[in-house]
C-alpha cells in the first residue's frame, strides 16, 4: 500500500486494551450497524469479508505499532479556544483526526483494492470510537490521564482507564443490553450528530476532558456519585460515535459497488501458519485454556506453548467450554508474536 502506510500495522502485534475497551468499541460498531442503509450494510460486510463491524472494531488496538499508535489520540494543551484548537489539530499530521480523514479518503479512492479498503474501513470503525472518548483528546503531560492514579471499586486504576472501560464495566451489562440502553438518539439528534464533522467530534471530547481534570486529584477514590454523574456522559458519547459512524459509512459506501465476499477456505491445521491474513475454516482439538481476564485463550493442536493455533475467545464467545473438544472455527488468521491466532467474538464462529 503506497498512499498511506496502514500496512505497517501488520508488523508485530501488541495486545492492548485502549480507548473504549472491548465492550465500548463493540457497542459503537453495533449501534452504527443498526443505522446503516441496506446497501451500506451489504457493502461493509463485503469489504470485511463477511464480518460484522463489531467483529473488527477492536482490531486496531490489538495490532498497534510504534507508527500507528498516535492515530488513536490527540494530546494538546488545555485552555484553547475553538480557533486555537482547530489550528493545533491541523498542525499535526499524525493523530486521530488526520487518521480518520485518511481512512475516509481511502474508502473513496477508486484506485485502491478491496483489501486496502478493508483495512481503511477497519480503522475508521475503531477511530471514530476513539475520537469520542474524552481522555483520548486531552493533555500531553499526563499522557491523557494515564499517569493520574486513582482507586475505583477498591482497585488501583488511572483517569484514562477509568473512562476507557471501568465506568462501562461497573454497569455490569451484557453487550446486548449496552446497545439497547445506549442507542437512544432521537431522530432530531441523529440528524444533528451526523451533520457534525470529525473536528467537532474531537472538540466535544476536548471540552469534556478539560472539565474532567478538575473533578479528581491523584490518589483519589472515585465513588458511586462520580459514576452516577458520568455514566450518562459515557452512554451519550458511545451513542454519538455509533450514530456518526453510521452517517459516515452511509455517505462513503451508500453508492459503492460491492466487492465479492471471500469464502472461508477450508485448511489443514498443520498448515495454518501459511494463511495469515486469510479467512479460513479449520478443525482441531482444544488441548488447554487460559483465562486472562479480557479473553480466554484456547490452544488448538497441542497444549501451550506448542499449540498450532490460538483461539482468542472474547465477548459472547468467551464462556464457550472448549477444552478437550474437537471444534471447527471460522475466522481470519492473524500473526500474534510469531504465532497464528483467530479472534472469536461470535459463538457462531465455532462448530462442535
Describe the overall structure.
The chain has 352 residues and is α/β, with parallel strands linked by helices. It is built from 12 helices and 12 strands. The protein has helices at residues 21-34, 38-47, 53-56, 59-62, 82-91, 96-108, 114-131, 159-171, 175-182, 187-195, 198-212, 224-253; strands spanning 74-75, 137-138, 149-152, 155-158, 221-222, 265-267, 279-291, 296-300, 309-313, 326-336, 339-344, 350-351. Helix 1 (21-34) crosses helix 7 (114-131), helix 1 packs across helix 12 and helix 7 (114-131) packs antiparallel against helix 12.
Note poorly predicted spans: 1-17
The average pLDDT score comes to 91
Order of helices and strands: HHHHEHHHEEEHHHHEHEEEEEEE
Query: What composes the largest sheet?
Result: 5 strands, mixed, barrel
Shape: globular
Number of strands: 12
Strand order of the largest sheet: 7-8-9-11-10
Helix content: 40-55%
Question: What percent strand?
Answer: 15-25%
Structural class: alpha/beta
Gap between N and C termini:
39 Å
Q: What is the C-alpha radius of gyration, as a whole number of Å?
A: 20 Å
SS summary, helix count? 12
Protein name: S1/P1 nuclease
Organism: Mucilaginibacter segetis
GO molecular function, one term: nucleic acid binding
Keywords: Disulfide bond, Endonuclease, Glycoprotein, Hydrolase, Metal-binding, Nuclease
Amino acid at each position: 500500500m503506497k498512499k498511506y502506510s496502514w500496512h505497517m500495522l501488520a508488523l508485530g502485534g501488541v495486545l492492548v486494551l485502549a480507548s473504549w475497551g472491548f465492550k465500548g468499541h463493540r457497542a459503537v460498531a453495533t449501534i452504527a450497524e443498526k443505522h446503516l442503509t441496506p446497501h451500506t450494510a451489504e457493502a461493509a460486510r463485503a469489504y470485511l469479508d463477511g464480518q460484522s463491524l463489531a467483529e473488527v472494531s477492536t482490531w486496531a488496538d490489538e495490532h498497534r505499532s510504534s507508527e500507528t499508535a498516535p492515530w488513536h489520540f490527540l494530546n494538546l494543551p488545555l485552555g484553547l479556544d475553538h480557533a486555537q484548537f482547530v489550528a493545533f489539530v491541523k498542525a499535526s499530521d499524525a493523530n486521530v483526526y488526520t487518521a480518520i480523514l485518511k481512512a475516509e479518503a481511502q474508502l473513496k479512492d477508486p484506485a485502491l483494492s478491496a483489501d486496502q479498503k478493508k483495512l481503511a474501513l477497519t480503522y475508521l470503525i475503531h477511530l471514530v470510537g476513539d475520537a469520542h472518548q474524552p481522555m483520548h483528546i486531552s493533555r500531553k503531560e499526563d499522557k491523557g490521564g494515564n499517569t493520574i492514579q486513582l482507586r475505583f471499586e477498591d482497585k488501583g486504576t488511572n483517569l484514562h482507564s477509568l473512562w476507557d472501560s471501568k465506568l462501562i464495566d461497573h454497569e455490569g451489562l451484557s453487550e446486548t443490553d449496552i446497545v439497547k440502553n445506549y442507542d437512544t438518539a432521537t431522530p432530531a439528534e441523529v440528524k444533528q450528530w451526523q451533520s457534525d464533522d470529525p473536528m467537532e467530534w474531537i472538540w466535544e471530547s476536548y471540552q469534556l476532558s478539560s472539565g474532567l481534570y478538575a473533578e479528581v486529584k491523584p490518589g483519589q477514590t472515585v465513588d458511586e456519585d462520580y459514576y452516577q454523574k458520568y455514566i450518562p456522559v459515557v452512554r451519550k458519547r458511545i451513542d454519538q460515535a455509533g450514530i456518526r459512524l453510521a452517517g459516515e459509512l452511509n455517505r462513503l459506501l451508500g453508492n459503492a459497488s460491492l466487492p465479492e465476499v471471500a469464502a472461508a477456505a477450508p485448511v489443514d491445521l498443520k498448515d495454518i501458519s501459511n494463511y495469515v491474513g486469510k479467512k479460513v475454516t479449520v478443525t482441531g482439538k482444544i488441548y488447554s485454556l487460559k483465562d486472562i481476564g479480557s479473553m480466554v485463550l484456547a490452544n488448538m493442536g497441542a497444549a501451550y506453548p506448542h499449540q498450532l493455533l490460538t483461539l482468542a475467545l472474547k465477548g459472547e464467545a468467551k464462556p464457550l467450554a472448549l477444552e478437550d473438544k474437537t471444534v471447527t472455527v471460522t475466522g481470519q488468521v492473524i500473526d500474534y508474536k510469531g504465532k497464528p491466532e483467530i479472534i472469536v467474538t461470535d459463538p457462531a464462529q465455532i462448530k462442535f
